[in-house]
Amino acid sequence: MKLIKSIIKPFKLEEVRDALNELGVQGMTVSEVRGFGRQKGHTELYRGAEYVVDLLPKIKIEVVVADESVSSVIGAITQAAATGKIGDGKIFVLPVEEAVRIRTGESGDTAL
Amino acid sequence: MKLIKSIIKPFKLEEVRDALNELGVQGMTVSEVRGFGRQKGHTELYRGAEYVVDLLPKIKIEVVVADESVSSVIGAITQAAATGKIGDGKIFVLPVEEAVRIRTGESGDTAL
Amino acid sequence: MKLIKSIIKPFKLEEVRDALNELGVQGMTVSEVRGFGRQKGHTELYRGAEYVVDLLPKIKIEVVVADESVSSVIGAITQAAATGKIGDGKIFVLPVEEAVRIRTGESGDTAL
Amino acid sequence: MRFRWGWAIPSAALFALAAGTAHAEEALPELSAGDTAWMLTSSALVLMMTIPGLALFYGGLVRGRNVLSVLMQCLVSAGLMSVIWVLVGYSLAFSGDGAYIGDLAKMGLAGIGPETLSGTIPEYVFVVFQGMFAIITPALMLGAFAERMRFSAYLVFITVWLLLVYAPLAHMVWGGGLISGWGALDFAGGLVVHMSSGFSALVAAIFLGKRQGYGSQPLPPHNLPFTVIGAALLWVGWFGFNAGSELAANGIAGLAFINTNTATAMALLVWLAIEWVHLGKPTVLGGATAAVAGLVAITPACAFVTPIGALYVGAGAGVLCYLAVAVLKPRLGYDDSLDVFGVHGIGGAWGAIATALFIAPFALEGAWGAQLLTQIKSVAFTAIFAPLVTLIILFVMRAVMGSLRVEAEQESEGLDLSQHSESAYSTGAGSTLAGAFSQDS
Amino acid sequence: MRFRWGWAIPSAALFALAAGTAHAEEALPELSAGDTAWMLTSSALVLMMTIPGLALFYGGLVRGRNVLSVLMQCLVSAGLMSVIWVLVGYSLAFSGDGAYIGDLAKMGLAGIGPETLSGTIPEYVFVVFQGMFAIITPALMLGAFAERMRFSAYLVFITVWLLLVYAPLAHMVWGGGLISGWGALDFAGGLVVHMSSGFSALVAAIFLGKRQGYGSQPLPPHNLPFTVIGAALLWVGWFGFNAGSELAANGIAGLAFINTNTATAMALLVWLAIEWVHLGKPTVLGGATAAVAGLVAITPACAFVTPIGALYVGAGAGVLCYLAVAVLKPRLGYDDSLDVFGVHGIGGAWGAIATALFIAPFALEGAWGAQLLTQIKSVAFTAIFAPLVTLIILFVMRAVMGSLRVEAEQESEGLDLSQHSESAYSTGAGSTLAGAFSQDS
Amino acid sequence: MRFRWGWAIPSAALFALAAGTAHAEEALPELSAGDTAWMLTSSALVLMMTIPGLALFYGGLVRGRNVLSVLMQCLVSAGLMSVIWVLVGYSLAFSGDGAYIGDLAKMGLAGIGPETLSGTIPEYVFVVFQGMFAIITPALMLGAFAERMRFSAYLVFITVWLLLVYAPLAHMVWGGGLISGWGALDFAGGLVVHMSSGFSALVAAIFLGKRQGYGSQPLPPHNLPFTVIGAALLWVGWFGFNAGSELAANGIAGLAFINTNTATAMALLVWLAIEWVHLGKPTVLGGATAAVAGLVAITPACAFVTPIGALYVGAGAGVLCYLAVAVLKPRLGYDDSLDVFGVHGIGGAWGAIATALFIAPFALEGAWGAQLLTQIKSVAFTAIFAPLVTLIILFVMRAVMGSLRVEAEQESEGLDLSQHSESAYSTGAGSTLAGAFSQDS
Ligand SMILES: Nc1ncnc2c1ncn2[C@@H]1O[C@H](COP(=O)(O)OP(=O)(O)O)[C@@H](O)[C@H]1O
Ligand SMILES: Nc1ncnc2c1ncn2[C@@H]1O[C@H](COP(=O)(O)OP(=O)(O)O)[C@@H](O)[C@H]1O
Ligand SMILES: Nc1ncnc2c1ncn2[C@@H]1O[C@H](COP(=O)(O)OP(=O)(O)O)[C@@H](O)[C@H]1O
To answer: Per the structure, how many domains does chain D have?
Structure first.
């Protein structure tokens, strides 16, 4: 099993979720994060002072899948989340040694 | 060392924490996330329109433990977090290569 | 590649970011978390009742780097985030099998 | 409200000359534009106390998943009580001369027109001013059973309670009934509004049982700034409540106004001092709670004491309500979620007794001791009457409608979703997690 | 506003004796401190309706990245309209006797001084009271095109609209022009304020096009408590709007006040009942919306019906505005973001007709049927005049300034950042992510 | 406040006939219900300016970990200043005829009863109206040293400051002392309220030193909607502050009211225009700040200029306060956290001078140039007196109590936790992280 951790632009969440659902991925966990990167931040004004905000809002999607699904999942996310502009984000793949479904205690791929 | 990443129902946080404390786990990191899964979302109403909210609030607990504690930690979380209803969540185990305590620079199991 | 996941005190974020930038790390992902640990919580008062809040606000920084940078990154974070007081936080190193830049589809170290 | 039997008449005479618009030689009062202006303003201020004042005060104190249910209960009290007041409530409270309750002669405001006066103001203005009291009083109670009552049960409860507890008490104290006959003084509602709601709320809280997790886990306020805004708007609006109860813009209204401010200020200082000594820190929630306690306590007394007397009334409220909330409640173990009993019940009872304790010479008609006994008697009456009738109402309701409480799962999900299918907040700016819905219809 | 031609004169006479400060033997009215007190208060209340009332009502309903743009549009309406009103707006609406528009004789308030009266109040007070109406009316429209209009386009639009739609209508209805000549009744602005803004807003919403994602994804409110606070402050402030429109503190003001409260309460109950039956749950947003709908509908009628009549006016508003918002809008598919048309357009039209339907005997001058026809005629006129002129304004503006809408990327980034370089919230207490900036200058 | 020596008397005569309730043939003024109604309302409005107005304006601007400390400082000012005002403050300011300060004859409001008048209103009303000014003035200063002063130091500071700075200045300007003897005009407190607090605040900000991170890292507002609501409530409440200072509901009150609105509106437009040109975007925070600047500047002038004059006063405030806040402050490098000096100090000084610059013929008694010199003299006096005494107070306090500032660790933890053991928010709805406590007692 692998954990596929992707950082995407917030407004792409719906499309990525739909793409994953189509692949048969049944679960995922999402959180709000902020990212630094090559993408330039925006300027804010505050009584005459200017600030550059370079921590930008992003969405992190974590989904654990069986080994054989990794490449299709990466493909789906890449396609759904890309706009071609800087800041589209990253996908990282990490090894997962075990997964357990709390409700039933099942483990392994069937727990996903 | 392993990272045990669990997604649980929000109101189970206290019980899980207590269960881990009893095992002697001294630290953990918690965050608010939202989960998609088999659990059905709820409906919201907005001036006559109905929406299904299927991103449900969950709590993510990340705890890094020595290899020998993994199975007891999994057991404790499973027991404390289970309600038997869909949506109880998952536990994922990931390998950790190194841990460092920032304050002292200690590393390895003693850093936990 | 490795994922370096650090939990630090919130007001240290700026310094850690600057330290990483100096090492040439170009991107990182940050989120707000809460941590339990050895650090004692604070007391809150509510109409005569006292509560101990022991879930303390922390910042989680996730940065994926090439294998050869791991030790310098750990060093930089340790130095920038340390105050010497309990609660300075931890650094965990996890193996990453793949990284993809969504915008271009590039993978491996060049995707970082 | 200006106490209309007994004390009020000499005071009216006293100010008749000074009033400028009153003509001593005429038997019938004329409309005073000045008095009317103040009463229109006061009516608006008293509505502001409930929405948004009380709504925010209470709404900030509950958890984020129940805030809308609290706002809704305040809002719907304004809706439901207003309609009932016009249809029958006003008549039951202020028409006829029964000892316990009025009659139905003014149902639907029959017989009242734009030219009908009540003293020097249009009766419509009197009706709507009193209607605002009938909105806030039932809403005050919701703090006691917040985060767990079914919305439908709430609607039935406040409706029946208005008719069987509030209207009779208003009639007995202000409408010429029993308690006014005793000579009890209750200028703006220490008995009618605060004791009645505070004691009834205690019964309701116990009847409904504790919230899930009460005692074992803290149930912290989700937005204290809301609570402070609410307390501030209550303070501001209360000037309409208290000084408006003179039904005129004159020296007694001025006295009621300055006393309201002074007692509240003093209660706040005393409460903070106690917290500082007792807990080591003065808290904002303590300050906000103390302000409301001071406002409650001065309510019955505000036209009968001097500003120096008001300092004592306020100080007493600070001490007694603090004890009720921080010592008594944990000892007895009931879950009065937002301390309606500790603040309104205790504060109202203290205020009614303090009215006699600190009464100014110009307000005292008979013997001081007799007045004190009368006040105690009226406090005792209210402390029995209101909760007793409330208890009967609740038992009958449960027999008819089943449990008044939401189901356990609905409670842990939160009342906003389970009762109203809404969430108060979508997460902060820049976030889109809250927008991640799928549309259904 | 107190309808000054026709009905107003007998009513003034009716209350002359009761008013206390008026002297029947004198031809010229004198200043009444009581009336002035109420009008000063009412003016403050009407400003409070826009800021912070409407600002919060609308601000809570948009997404978090657009809340500041809504607050800004309300704030700047108070700035811009106030200045224009003093310079030319007041004169165009209330000076001279053209059929369609006034004249420029009172430009810059020429000829008015502290001693100049308008009835029993200083003319300055009348000017500023009316100025508060000129602030809220354009601001009402912003709900229709919220989350997508350029800020500069908004400024131009409300300026021109005030001069070409609002000032003429105010003159025609209240300034002695065309519609008042027909004998149409519009006490506080069903036509002038609500229909004019509601119908114009519909046109503007359609002209600007739908928001990104409208229809395909929900655009949920980011802070419903703000919306409820806003509705509450609108309710409270509306007493100044409606009862203030009598321009005096008398029995008609009292009637307007109680009717305002009663109709609003009834609209709220009816809307919740419909939601309960239709959707299974009564919602807080429904309650808040219904309150505003009730307030709108009673606006033209509040001095002409009895409180029982007000119940019908409110009930009708509950039914009709619910249908407009929950049934009509999705069917027709336009994106009136915050339902300005459904609430103000429909509510205002209903109120204007209901004025005749439920008119009280004491308010009816001629034949009932004739009054009804006059009301319908004035509704029809407004329903054509306001949107037509608005459409012309928008076409000309687009020809001159280019698109009135922000660019697609600015819209998805949010108007707060793109129009004002600001974010409403930095994330919760304890967080420092929001502090993680680097300072530039 | 209505300037009671010099100009006030002819104006009173001017309106005596128009007032309706005043009887020219009587030497002694009678109570006017209309004037009293307006002053009761005004008193409520001025309290609303501090709580919740100023509390929200400032509270939104600080970081989330300090918001409660700001709300608390506003709330406790209402508590502490009210009590001191009744005990000694009022007497020191308004009793006796010393040049610099009053006497103690009215300590504890001795000699005042419900029937005591002050002009045409009950003296109690005058006392409480003035008391509301004594609440807001010290609270205004907290913006300068927000996010770093110890709570106990704040309590001592505002208490001593009220007695040694505010009460003397109020006496000198309004109580018949030195500055009123010069013939200086300060209708509602440009000198007494705004310059005094603004200049004192600057001294206090410098004395306490900069906040951690000031200059090196931005300290962004945590909740701009709160700030906008606060500014809006300040705007609304300021009508009571300014028009209430006439102490009557008449044409001058009307003038003060419309001028207040007009100058504020103009300041807002001018500030936004400058930002647009200078920074490329108009900001909401700019608009809110400008509104307050306009309100400040018109305060001394509001009864002495025409509405056209008010446009100039407002425009000047927009320009000068913008320069002070956006150019002067960064140059000089002091950390006046929320710009109390830039807005109140500069705005108040400008308003006091502008009073003479734009004075209307009907308000000018002597020569224009002489009046201008008098205004400048009074501005200079205040600009020296207030900060000097403040500095002495702060030095003595530090000698007695030690550092007035919280410890470094407390500052980074936030004042809410360190001073009050509270957190403002528990994270958003649906979250339970905030509930993850363990109960201790
Ligand atoms: N090395 C990294 N480790 C963790 N997160 C990263 C890393 N690099 C980038 N990110 C995340 O990806 C987001 C997008 O990266 P950025 O460099 O701006 O654009 P792009 O992915 O198009 O090259 C960042 O905002 C950050 O959240
Ligand atoms: N494959 C997955 N990867 C990551 N998180 C998952 C995955 N599947 C489920 N989750 C998380 O677990 C939660 C519970 O899953 P769900 O399918 O609803 O119920 P259950 O765990 O009882 O089968 C989800 O809300 C989601 O946060
Ligand atoms: N075993 C662990 N797994 C995950 N996070 C941990 C673990 N131990 C500590 N942490 C995180 O590190 C933070 C600091 O730990 P703490 O024990 O308080 O201090 P220190 O790191 O100085 O020993 C905690 O608040 C928690 O967020």
So the answer is: 1
The response to whether residue B41 sits with its C-beta less than 6 Å from ligand 2 reads: no
> Is the minimum distance from the CB of C112 to ligand 1 under 6 angstroms?
yes
Contacts E437 to A, Cβ<8 Å: 44, 51-55
- Which two three-digit tokens encode residue E366? 């001629």
Token duo for residue F207: 């004395």
Q: What own/partner pairs with CB < 8 Å and gap ≥ 24 does A78-82 have?
A: A78/C100, A78/C102, A78/C105, A79/A19, A80/A12, A80/A15, A80/A16, A80/A18, A80/A19, A81/A6, A81/A8, A81/A9, A81/A12, A81/A15, A81/A16, A81/C102, A82/C102, A82/C103, A82/C105
Q: State the ligand closest to the CA atom of C7.
A: 3
Report whether A51 contacts A78 (CB < 8 A).
Answer: no
Residue B52: per-residue pLDDT: 87
pTM to 2 decimal places: 0.95
Whole-number Å distance between alpha carbons of F104 and F127: 15
Minimal-distance CA residue to ligand 3 atom 21: C89
All chains having 3 or more CB pairs closer than 8 angstroms to chain A: B, C, D, E, F
Residue type, C64: V
Q: What is the CATH number of the domain that holds E239?
A: 1.10.3430.10
**For residue F27, what pLDDT is reported?**
57
Model pLDDT, residue D359: 98
Whole-number percent of chain D with pLDDT over 70? 90
Residue D73 lies in a domain: yes
**CA-closest residue to ligand 2 atom 20:** B87
Measured in Å, residue C36 CA sits from the centre of ligand 3 at 6
In order, the DSSP letters of F282-318 are --HHHHHHHHHHHHHHHTTTTTTS-HHHHHHHHHHHH
Number of neighbours of residue E407 by Cβ within 10 angstroms = 11
Residue F86 lies in a domain: yes
Residues F198, F204, F206, CA angle at the centre, nearest 5°? Answer: 105
Cα–Cα distance for residue pair E115/F306, rounded to 1 Å: 12
Closest ligand 2 atom number to CA of residue A102: 21
Closest-CA distance of chain B to residue F293, Å = 39
- Give me F414's structure tokens: 């936030």
Q: Are strands C56-65 and C2-8 parallel, antiparallel or unpaired?
A: antiparallel
| Residue E166 maps to a domain | yes
Q: Which phi and psi angles does B53 have, rounded to 5°?
A: -95, 110
Kindly state the DSSP code that residue F276 receives in the 8-state scheme: H
**Does the beta carbon of A20 sit less than 6 angstroms from any atom of ligand 2?**
no
Residue D312 has, within 13 A of its CA and on its CB side, a CA count of 15
The pLDDT, as a whole number, for residue E218 is: 81
From D219, D254, D281, residue closest to F114, measured CB to CB? D254
Nearest CA-CA partner of F436 in F428, F425, F426: F426
Closest C-alpha to F77, from F3, F2, F191, F161? F161
Distance from CA of F184 to the nearest CA of D (A): 30
Asked if C49 contacts D328 with a C-beta cutoff of 8 angstroms, the reply is no
Chain A neighbors of E413, CB-CB under 8 A = 42
To the nearest whole Å, the CA of A49 is away from the closest chain F CA by 7
Query: Rounded to whole angstroms, how far apart are CA atoms C88 and C82?
Result: 6
Is B14 within 8 Å of chain F by CB? yes
Q: Which residues, in sequence order, are CB contacts of F427 under 8 Å at separation 6+?
A: B32, D64, E428, F433, F434
The pLDDT value given to residue E19: 40
The residue ranges of chain E whose pLDDT is under 70 are 1-27, 427-441
Element (H, E) at B50: strand B49-53
Q: Is residue E57 part of a domain?
A: yes
pLDDT for residue C2: 97
| Choice from A3, A23, A26, A29 to test ligand 2 binding pocket (greatest atom count within 8 A of CB) | A29
At E285, the amino acid letter reads L
**Structural domain harbouring D349:** 33-420
